[in-house]
Each structure stands twice: as structure tokens, then as C-alpha cells.
């Protein structure tokens, strides 16, 4: 969610010229591919950024090369590039050196590599692995150069990719002591250039006495400049190594606060380490070595979970929820009471064996620690966003749009019957499909996790749709950057974990990053959540190029997945499989078929569409069922277009669909741009639904030029609705969807008036 956060707080990407990675894993680099692509598309020639990290960064580079052009990669290098600092070069271990990254007179930035302890001799492998710990992959000169650095580092020890962490040390130049003109005058030095020479540390001859005047004669002693450490210690094994690093000795103080010889006083430490490490006595003892330093705990603190990070989108979600809670769940305004019940959230203990002067602060978004000017050294929370409450948002809404109250009441009257089943009150011209007969609210829910196109924006994330089958599991259709964050906003922290564990399949429409950049994070989290529990790899269905990316990436981090090419899930491929299952070499097709059956689906069919090579839409056909009196009820049919121009094959595959989810990137007046970029206009998406005879159409994948609500003509929305992020459509609610559309305009009067004027 980095790009959305920057947009939210008006921080331009051009202000960032360096990114330093503490580790290489989906948790730390999940947003990097999308960021590189966004920068490459800025301006006429694009922008680039410098990225530094552990040398196993080469595996990420090789993975990204499968879908990111070399011109967009920027300047990526490992922290080993400049070699070790002279001060630490005498260290006996190559892992106990200060590697100088930047030394420019303004700042000195160094890095220390932190491996897990007890490194084995060269040649050992990951448990159960048949591959060497240093996989060899052909790639660009950039990737091969990084790989050479990794191989040199691991020539004598078996260090697996993904295990290396980095501590960054930021040192500012020393602060000159105060200059006393009266002392200089007393020693016969006249005001002028010699005063400047003395302040720059040079000795001068006295103008009136036969002596040499030294800076120490007329100035207070210089002091070390401010120092900040960024520490990411992911495991107790890394902590053992961290505690024994001799290269950090100059930065330690005594517990009493008196510096040891050559000690550099550290002003601030930023801890990215997890609670499972920071809560241990060993970590507290290591923290105590820094004396009076300010400690900022910046890893998933409870206070941050309480506050919505993306307040603009939370505000929109709260307004939508006020209008129609049946479709728009309340955004997660967590209370401290709710947080205390979460087993995964624990506070840093206060009973620490640290100096009483030691300060511990929980990090907040946009919290600053000032280094200069020296008189302002310390924490600054002036830019920390103010908290917002649901009550505050709703009071503002009812004040600005008083008619929203009656509109909400009218919408609620459309929901009738037991269990909230919808009765068609206003849509007599569209008969209820037989597949919806006897539907319950526990059958299926469609959650729109991202409804924007191209790149994340302030109000809309990029593409992802969560098909919630409740007790039968779930399916993810597309998985753009930030999908995991959206799951947490929709289901809460624990609920998102359960949603990830319950996934039966991830299906990716095409290789563009806004549709797949979040896959690795979801897969890695699922692997961690199910570790120690019997389970099978998760099926990922997508274009061949995605398999290349994931295969390369899982050399860095375990993804626990089994890939199936979209071309093996087309209608003709399924027919070939049914007639001869010997074509299923690795068993993935058979596994998918069994998983679909467990989830109540009859088929999952990929349909080639008109966008980029190997772009697909998808048809999900659910199995027929029998009601309580033995009547056979046909299964419902859900179709998602992915990105496409109006496509005859997709229309054919969508025939009599219960729901068609179709991209509608552009308004009707931008047909030429839609054709040029192989996207659809809103009118074309509606026409596709009409041609297919789809019962309902939900429009999504809107251009980010429409930040809150897209431009649409209400005259053709008789069986359609517009998707918003986190909108949750229960299958039982499909009949009522078009009736809600006119009220959506009510929530956005300013946007609608501008659109109508245009």
C-alpha cells in the first residue's frame, strides 16, 4: 500500500531517490514492482530510483525481469558493492563488517549484514531440498552481477536466499564546537579569514603574538553528529548473531550512560523486528547497550491497527455503509477493546531491563525523528494524521446531505423476508433466474477488493475479486498490489488470515502488474499460516509468464504453490483432459477439478480475450442442486472479463450468466482511447451483458481519472451496478443491485455535477 499511502498524504514519488531494503521477502518488497513501473511511466522519459539491499536481491531482480522491462528497473544493487569500511575491515568475519553505501559529506550510510547464527559449511541445503542453496538463473547483466556478489558472499558458508537481514547505520557529520571570538582576539588573531580557518579545523598564526593558534584554543570540542540505526531482526537465530557483532561495538554505551572509548552515541533506533523477538529478555539486553537512545518500535503496533491508514477511502466506505449497509460493510474502525482480544497483537512489555532514561515509543504513520538542526533533535508527531471516527464521518454526511437518511431507509425497505432474502419489488421486467430460487446468504458472496485500473489510487486499489463460498472455501480472481491489505480492511486481521487459509485457488487474468503483483505476498502468508498443518500447495492458474515469475521468486521465499497455465483451463483443454487425462503430467488439472468439486463448482473455464498476449476472462459454473421438495435447480454462473475490448468469445461464454463482472475502464466519450489501450467503455460493457443475456452486470476496473465515481449514463443501468472497493455482493442480493445505483449519485453530488457539465 505504499503508493496509496503516498498519494493520500500528497508525498510525491519524486521526493524519494533511494530505497534500502532490510530483507528480501514479500513483506518488505511487495510494493516494489508496482512502484518501479509507476516511476517508469512518469514524465516523457520516466524516472528511476536507487534500490539497495542484501545480495540475495538478485533473485527478486530475476523474477521481476519476467514482466518488468530493464529500462524500468532503476539502479538496483546490493550493500556489498562498495566493499567493507576500513574501520571494520580487520574483522575476522565477512558478516561482521561495516559496508559503506553513501559518504558524501552530508550523510554517511553504512550497512551490516546479519545472517542467522550457526551457518553450516558450504554445500548444505534447505531441508528437503534437492537444489543448491545458490540457484543459478540466466538473466540480465544487472541480475548476474548481483548473483556474483551473492555467490562470493556464500562461497564458504551455506546461506539460503531470504535468510539475510541488514542493519542500516545513518551518521551525520560531526557537530563543530562553539567558536569564541574573544579567545581568538586574546591570542592575537584578528577578525577575518583566519576565524573561518579556525572554525574549519585548521591552525593559524597569530597576528600579534609569535604563536600558532589551534582550533582547540578557541573552540569547544566537536561532538559526533546524530546517529540512527534501523534494525530488522526477524528471528531469535538472527538475534544471537546481532548480539555478537563486533562492528556495532563503537555504537554501544554503558548502562550508566557513560560512553566507552571511541563510542559514538546513537540517538535513535528504529526496530522493524517482530514481537516474537523484541519481547525476549535477550533483545531487551541488546537494546540496553545503547544507553539513552530513543527506541521506536515500528512493527505492527496495536495503535496503528486501531487507526485506518487510508483515511480517504475509509471515509468513502463509511458513507457508502450509511447509505446501504447490505452491500457496503462498515470500515474497520478498531477499538482498543477489540484489539486486546486479538491473540496475534501483543504490546511491547514495559518491565524492561533498560536504563530509566531509555525511551520507548510506538511508531505512528508520519512520525518523524529530527536529526538537524541539532536543537530540534528528537521526535516530532506534528504530522501524524488525526484520528477519525465513524460518528464524525456520519455527522458530516447527514449535515451536508440530509436526504441521505430517507434514502437509506428506502433502500433498507427493499430487503424483505427471512435471512435477508431479496424480493424483486421494482424489477418486474427482469424475471428472477431459476438458479437463484431458494438461494441463501451462506451460498456465495463476491467481495471487490480492488476496482481501479493501472495503479493504486487514493480511493481505489488495483484489481482483485474475492469469491467467498463460506464453509466451502474461497477463490481469488486477480491479485493486484495491496490485495492482502484490502482483505484485512474487509475481514479484520484475524479474518484475513482465515480467508487466506481457506483459498482453494488463485486465478490471474493476465501478466500486467496491476492484476498479479500481490500474489507472492498472499502465497507466502498462506505458507506461514499453514506451517506445521497438513495441507497441499495452492493452485495458481494464470498465464505462462506468471509461472516464470513465481518459479523464480520461490527460490527466494517458499510459496507452496502449484501452477496451472490458463491455456490448460480453456473449454477445449478441459474436453481434451476429459477424453485423455494422460495429458495431465503433474496432476495439477486433476487437483483443480477435485478442488472445484469440493467448492461446489462444476467448471472453471478460461476464455481468451482481447487485451494483451495470453489475456483471459473466466467462467465459473456452479453445480446444480436439489431443493427440499426434490426439484432440480440449475447452478448459477459467474463471469469475469479481466481486461478486454468487447469480445465475442467472452459474450458467447457469458450466455445466460447470473452475473457478468465486466471491465469498464473508460467513459463512453473516450472510445478512441479505449480502443488504443484494448479496454472497454461503460456502454460497451453494458452492451456485452445485454448481448449475453446476463441477469446482472457489475462494472469495475475504472480509470483512476475517476477517483470516486465514474461517469455513467443512468438510462442503461437497468440491470447493472458500479463496483466500489470492499463492496460485498451476496448472491441473494443480485436482484436489488440496479435499484441502488440512483442513490449512489446522491453520495457524490460534486463529482456528478462536474461529470454532467462535461
TrEMBL record:
UniProt xrefs under CDD domains: RNaseZ_ELAC1_ELAC2-C-term-like_MBL-fold (cd07718)
Cofactor dependency: Zn(2+)
Name assigned to this protein: ribonuclease Z
Keyword Metal-binding: yes
GO biological process: mitochondrial tRNA 3'-end processing
A GO CC term attached to the entry: mitochondrion
Record's catalysed reaction(s): Endonucleolytic cleavage of RNA, removing extra 3' nucleotides from tRNA precursor, generating 3' termini of tRNAs. A 3'-hydroxy group is left at the tRNA terminus and a 5'-phosphoryl group is left at the trailer molecule
Top-level lineage group: Eukaryota
Keyword tags: Endonuclease, Hydrolase, Metal-binding, Nuclease, tRNA processing, Zinc
Pfam families assigned: Lactamase_B_2
EC number(s) given by UniProt: 3.1.26.11
Domain Metallo-beta-lactamase: 475-702
Amino acid at each position: 500500500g505504499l503508493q496509496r499511502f503516498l498519494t493520500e498524504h500528497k508525498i510525491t514519488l519524486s521526493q524519494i531517490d533511494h530505497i534500502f531494503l532490510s530483507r528480501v521477502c514479500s513483506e518488505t518488497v511487495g510494493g516494489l514492482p508496482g512502484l518501479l513501473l509507476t516511476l517508469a511511466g512518469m514524465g516523457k522519459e520516466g524516472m528511476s530510483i536507487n534500490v539497495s539491499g542484501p545480495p540475495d536481491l538478485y533473485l527478486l531482480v530475476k523474477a521481476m525481469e519476467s514482466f518488468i522491462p530493464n529500462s524500468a528497473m532503476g539502479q538496483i544493487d546490493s550493500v556489498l558493492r562498495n566493499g567493507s569500511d576500513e574501520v571494520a575491515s580487520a574483522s575476522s568475519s565477512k558478516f561482521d563488517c561495516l559496508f559503506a553505501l553513501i559518504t558524501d559529506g552530508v550523510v554517511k550510510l553504512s550497512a551490516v549484514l546479519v545472517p542467522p547464527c550457526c551457518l553450516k559449511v558450504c554445500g548444505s541445503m534447505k531441508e528437503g531440498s534437492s537444489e543448491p542453496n545458490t540457484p543459478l538463473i540466466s538473466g540480465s547483466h544487472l541480475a548476474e552481477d548481483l548473483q556474483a556478489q551473492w555467490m562470493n558472499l556464500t562461497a564458504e558458508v551455506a546461506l539460503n536466499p531470504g535468510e539475510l537481514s541488514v542493519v542500516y547505520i545513518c551518521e551525520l557529520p560531526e557537530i563543530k564546537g562553539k567558536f569564541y571570538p574573544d579567545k581568538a582576539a586574546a591570542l592575537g588573531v584578528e577578525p577575518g579569514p583566519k576565524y573561518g580557518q579556525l572554525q574549519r579545523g585548521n591552525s593559524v598564526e597569530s597576528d600579534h603574538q609569535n604563536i600558532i593558534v589551534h582550533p582547540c584554543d578557541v573552540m569547544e570540542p566537536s561532538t559526533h553528529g546524530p546517529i540512527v540505526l534501523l534494525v530488522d531482526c526477524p528471528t531469535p537465530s538472527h538475534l544471537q548473531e546481532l548480539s555478537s557483532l563486533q562492528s556495532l561495538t563503537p555504537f554501544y554505551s554503558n548502562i550508566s550512560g557513560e560512553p566507552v572509548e571511541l563510542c559514538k552515541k546513537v540517538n535513535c533506533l528504529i526496530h522493524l523486528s517482530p514481537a516474537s523477538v523484541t519481547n525476549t529478555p535477550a533483545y531487551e539486553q541488546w537494546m540496553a547497550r545503547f544507553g539513552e537512545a530513543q527506541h521506536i518500535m515500528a512493527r505492527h503496533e496495536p495503535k496503528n491497527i486501531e487507526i485506518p491508514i487510508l483515511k480517504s477511502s475509509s471515509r468513502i466506505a463509511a458513507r457508502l455503509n450509511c447509505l446501504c449497509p447490505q452491500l457496503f460493510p462498515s470500515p474497520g474502525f478498531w477499538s482498543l477493546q477489540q484489539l486486546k482480544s486479538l491473540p496475534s497483537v501483543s504490546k511491547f512489555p514495559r518491565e524492561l531491563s533498560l536504563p530509566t532514561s531509555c525511551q520507548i515509543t510506538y511508531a505512528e504513520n508520519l512520525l518523524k525523528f529530527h536529526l538537524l538542526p541539532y536543537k530540534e533533535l528528537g521526535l516530532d508527531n506534528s504530522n501524524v494524521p488525526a484520528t477519525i471516527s465513524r460518528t464524525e464521518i456520519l455527522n458530516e454526511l447527514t449535515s451536508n446531505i440530509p436526504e441521505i437518511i430517507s434514502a437509506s431507509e428506502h433502500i433498507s425497505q427493499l430487503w424483505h423476508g427471512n435471512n435477508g432474502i431479496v424480493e424483486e419489488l421494482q424489477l418486474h421486467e427482469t424475471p428472477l433466474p431459476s438458479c437463484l430460487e431458494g438461494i441463501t446468504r451462506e451460498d456465495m458472496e463476491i467481495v471487490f477488493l480492488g476496482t481501479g485500473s493501472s495503479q493504486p489510487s487514493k480511493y481505489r486499489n488495483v484489481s482483485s475479486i474475492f469469491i467467498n463460498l463460506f464453509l466451502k472455501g474461497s477463490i481469488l480472481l486477480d491479485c493486484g498490489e495491496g490485495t492482502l491489505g484490502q482483505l484485512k480492511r474487509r475481514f479484520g486481521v484475524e479474518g484475513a488470515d482465515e480467508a487466506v487459509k481457506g483459498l482453494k485457488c488463485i486465478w490471474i487474468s493476465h501478466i500486467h502488474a496491476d492484476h498479479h503483483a500481490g500474489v507472492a505476498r498472499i502465497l507466502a502468508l498462506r505458507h506461514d499460516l499453514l506451517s506445521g498443518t497438513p495441507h497441499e500447495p495452492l493452485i495458481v492458474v494464470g498465464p505462462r509468464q506468471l509461472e516464470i515469475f513465481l518459479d523464480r521468486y520461490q527460490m527466494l521465499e517458499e510459496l507452496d504453490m502449484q501452477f496451472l497455465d490458463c491455456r490448460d483451463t480453456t473449454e477445449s483443454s478441459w474436453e481434451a483432459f476429459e477424453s485423455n487425462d494422460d495429458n495431465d503430467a503433474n496432476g495439477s488439472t486433476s487437483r483443480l477439478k477435485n478442488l472445484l468439486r469440493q467448492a461446489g463448482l462444476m467448471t472453471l473455464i478460461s476464455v481468451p480475450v482481447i487485451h494483451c498476449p495470453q489475456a483471459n476472462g473466466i467462467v465459473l459454473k456452479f453445480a446444480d442442486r436439489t431443493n427440499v421438495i426434490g426439484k432440480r435447480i440449475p447452478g448459477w454462473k459467474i463471469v469475469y472479463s479481466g481486461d478486454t475490448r468487447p469480445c465475442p468469445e467472452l459474450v458467447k461464454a457469458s450466455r445466460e450468466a447470473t452475473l457478468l463482472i465486466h471491465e469498464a475502464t473508460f467513459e463512453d466519450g473516450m472510445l478512441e482511447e479505449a480502443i488504443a489501450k484494448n479496454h472497454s467503455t461503460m456502454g460497451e460493457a453494458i452492451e456485452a451483458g445485454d448481448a449475453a443475456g446476463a441477469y446482472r452486470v457489475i462494472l469495475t476496473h475504472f480509470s483512476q481519472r475517476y477517483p470516486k465515481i465514474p461517469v455513467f449514463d443512468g438510462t442503461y443501468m437497468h440491470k447493472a451496478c458500479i463496483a466500489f472497493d470492499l463492496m460485498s455482493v451476496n448472491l441473494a442480493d443480485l436482484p436489488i443491485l440496479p435499484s441502488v445505483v440512483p442513490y449512489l449519485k446522491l453520495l457524490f453530488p460534486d463529482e456528478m455535477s462536474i461529470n454532467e457539465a462535461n
